[in-house]
Amino acid sequence: MGKKGKKEKKGRGAEKTAAKMEKKVSKRSRKEEEDLEALIAHFQTLDAKRTQTVELPCPPPSPRLNASLSVHPEKDELILFGDFFV
Where in the sequence does UniProt note compositional bias of the Basic and acidic residues kind (predicted)? Predict the structure, then answer.
């Protein structure tokens, strides 16, 4: 009769461990979702800073002849070649 009681406890223990594992998995998934949401928000702020355009007031350039305007291959800049003033 003593053996039958042990079997029942083992069954209960398996149920308890299964419940604990489910609880751990749900906690991990919640953490991962929170971490993922935080990462997405962080990258959105970085992207907003990177794509923000700032206009600075400056005087107009002097008139030029035979000048060419080229795009810089690596930076977001325009290059003006030719210094022949009018």
Answer: 11-24
